[in-house]
Each structure stands twice: as C-alpha cells, then as structure tokens.
From TrEMBL:
Entry protein name: DUF2624 domain-containing protein
The organism's taxonomic lineage, starting at the top: Bacteria, Bacillati, Bacillota, Bacilli, Bacillales
InterPro entries, sorted: DUF2624 (IPR020277)
One Pfam family recorded for the sequence: DUF2624
Native species: Cytobacillus spartinae
Length: 84
C-alpha cells in the first residue's frame, strides 16, 4: 500500500496544469485551465502527503488562497478520489 501512496503523492508533487485538468475532467471535477495551471504551479516541488488528512486539509486551504475556495473544494474532491 505504501508504494501506491508514494506513486500518487509523487504524481501530485510533479503534476502539470494539463495533467491536473485531464484528471479533473476524468472525475467530473470543475476546474478551468487557468486554475489548473495555478494549482499545479503551487503543487510542484512540494512534498505533500494527500493520504494524511491534516496535510491535505492544510494544502486545500493554501489552494483556496491561490485559486479560490470553490476551486479548492473541487480539488479536494479530486484528491479524495485519488486516495480511494
């Protein structure tokens, strides 16, 4: 299970805006291209563990500052899909 978590977290930490947009569309999450680019820029290089609820909550608060609270909610839905 740890390998799976490592792969997902690595992807989150290196994601591009286009990849984020692709995943959002795949899971019917509402994120536009500009928001996806901002979020991906914020995420790149960070060592975050989306499987840790406290870390994910902190990350979502930071994303809300970058892209707005509604977008952060949508991204959280996407992260929750990744953790299932």
């Amino acid at each position: 299970m740890k390998i799976f978590e490592s792969v997902i977290n690595h992807k989150i930490n290196t994601i591009t805006g286009d990849e984020l947009l692709k995943y959002a569309n795949q899971f019917q999450i509402k994120v536009n291209k500009a928001e996806a680019q901002k979020i991906a820029k914020y995420l790149r290089g960070r060592q975050v563990n989306i499987f840790n609820d406290a870390e994910r909550a902190k990350l979502i608060k930071e994303i809300a500052k970058v892209a707005g609270p509604e977008t952060a909610k949508e991204v959280n839905k996407l992260f929750v899909q990744f953790t299932k």
